[in-house]
Amino acid sequence: MTSFSFDLLHEDGRARRGRLHTRRGVVETPVFMPVGTQATVKAMYPETLKEIGAQIILANTYHLLLRPGHERVRALGGLHRFMNWDRPILTDSGGFQVFSLGELRKIDEQGVRFQSHLDGAAHVLTPESSIAIQEALGSDIIMAFDECIPYPATREYVAESTARSSRWAARCRQARQPEDGAALFGIVQGGMHRDLRAQSVADLLAIGFEGYAVGGLSVGESAELMYEVMDWTMPLLPRDCPRYVMGVGTPENLVEGVRRGVDMFDCVMPTRNARNGVLFTSFGKISIKQARFLDDESPIDPDCDCYVCRHYSRAYLRHLYQSNEILSSMLNTHHNLHYYQQLMARMRDAIESGTFETFRAEFLAARRIDP
């Protein structure tokens, strides 16, 4: 029997303030989950993640299957012990990584046959094996196996893929061993077609899941189209279950997603951008590599109270980046993830106080390129 539950605490328009109860602790929503693909959030200590307010992180089934192997992780005490993280972990199913392999994979009704990007070895990932791998890892929220549909794609392909993902979702539900207490989330597909999204939701509701994710977004479509799909899909999902949009996104995406009723997000954007010298701030984003910061003694963001902004100048951060120092990635990542966590906390407060639309208007008005 799953020990997972969700409380919907406040609503402000379609924005929702909730609370996830997992076997490894409570998660306040809306929430952003840092991505720890290979059992690590790049350039961050687990203890530092806690300090900046991270409540739950994401790890990846595909990568951990290939290295070090899920059975090895199980033998070493499970993913939480392996990476020294005692808070909840969500594992994605591997579907997106398989989608990104292109010609290295072949999809059929059984599952996906693919070649490892590491050594070319052949593997098969099915709904049943994806669930078994995630259970071996010790995930607290397990994702159903699906195909992430590319964009653009023909309606015929989208319809065929979406129907297959629904059949795979039913197999995932049947394969689950619920006695370990983890939750299982279904993933809505359907591309950019309103009727196919609605059919996917109906299929998943008939199967029954503890939560529902929306996949197949942020795959090349415009932000306007992404928001349109959210507008179609969120009202179809159960009010008393958590709603998760996968792989999204920018700070603006998070605010607009919350406005449309999304509870959970993940994305590599804050960590990947940090390693490339791009920093998120209350006034937009800046590229710390630019020459204009060479002698700039000010912090990244004067309105930010993170450790980095309290102790380091833009000039020093630019020097670290230009020198290719490891500390550059560490400090930049710390700041970006702190910014994302504080953004979510501010949205939770705004929803509780019934001022979300005011918050959104002020947030958007403050976005500009230069400080």
Mean pLDDT: 95
Q: Tell me the fraction of residues in β-strands, as a range.
A: 15-25%
Q: Spatial order of the strands in the main sheet? A: 4-14-13-12-11-10-6-5
User: How many DSSP H or I helices?
Assistant: 15
In the CATH hierarchy, the architecture of the largest domain is Alpha-Beta Barrel
- How big is the Rg? 20 Å
Name the poorly predicted regions.
Answer: none
Descriptive tags:
single chain, 371 residues, alpha/beta, TIM Barrel, 2 domains, eight-stranded parallel sheet, three-stranded antiparallel sheet, 15 helices, 19% strand
Q: How would you portray this structure in words?
A:
The protein is of the alpha/beta class and 371 residues long. It has 2 domains: 5-267, TIM Barrel; 274-366, no CATH class. It has helices spanning 46-51, 61-66, 70-75, 79-83, 95-100, 127-137, 155-175, 194-207, 223-233, 251-259, 269-275, 307-311, 314-322, 326-353, 356-366; strands at residues 5-12, 15-22, 25-29, 31-33, 57-60, 89-92, 105-107, 112-115, 122-125, 141-143, 183-188, 211-214, 243-245, 264-266, 278-281, 284-287. The longest helix has 28 residues, at 326-353. The radius of gyration is 20 Å and the shape is globular. The N and C termini lie far apart (52 Å).
